[in-house]
């Protein structure tokens, strides 16, 4: 099976009705966790889980979220459906969701200013674009392996046997990538944009 991907660019705030609909579809634990964070920080994670919910219905016909659990190092999974693996990522103004039959990791980052010192210390690069391409690769690989976020701060290792990584095109100003099993093909990226509604629209 190929890795299936969904990317969304979010250009406006969610309406109260949209947020309520998305929140109601979440598993109870996720809903309670999101309600504990500031409202202005809920948009991207809400959209990520909504897209995951729609992707699961599209791919498998599931009408409800299955139970989600986490490993000791924080990797999410479906305990009742080991045949379905997923990964989520969100950054300012965009989200990325991936599905596969085998472990995978996805990451998307908005390219933004970073100090030269941080770029050199963390990635040994000179531009923000190079830095976030490196950061995305590290985070996607960490999500795939489930080794925990602390491993990202170490020197990056070559790809392991059976591991593949590829960059994907999503939206201008963003870096994104997928770490997966080497036998899997890169699937089509379904792209969506949540745009501002024109004020003169009927």
Keywords:
globular; single chain; four-stranded mixed sheet; 9 strands; alpha+beta; three-stranded antiparallel sheet; 202 residues
Largest sheet: 4 strands, mixed
Distance between the termini: 43 Å
Helix content: 25-40%
Assembly type of the shown chains?
A: single chain
Low-confidence stretches: none
CA radius of gyration is: 17 Å
Which structural class best describes the helix and strand composition?
alpha+beta
User: Please, what is the average pLDDT?
Assistant: 91
How many extended strands?
Answer: 9
Backbone shape: globular
Q: Strand fraction band?
A: 25-35%
What is the helix/strand order? EHHHEEEEEHHEEE
Q: Trace the largest sheet across and list its strands.
A: 4-5-1-9
Number of helices: 5
Can you summarize this structure?
With 202 residues, the chain is an alpha+beta fold.
Describe the structure.
The protein is α+β, with helices and mostly antiparallel strands. It contains 5 helices and 9 strands. It has a 4-stranded mixed β-sheet, covered by helices on one side. The chain has a 3-stranded antiparallel β-sheet with strand order 6-8-7, covered by helices on one side. The longest helix has 18 residues, at 43-60. It is globular, with a radius of gyration of 17 Å.
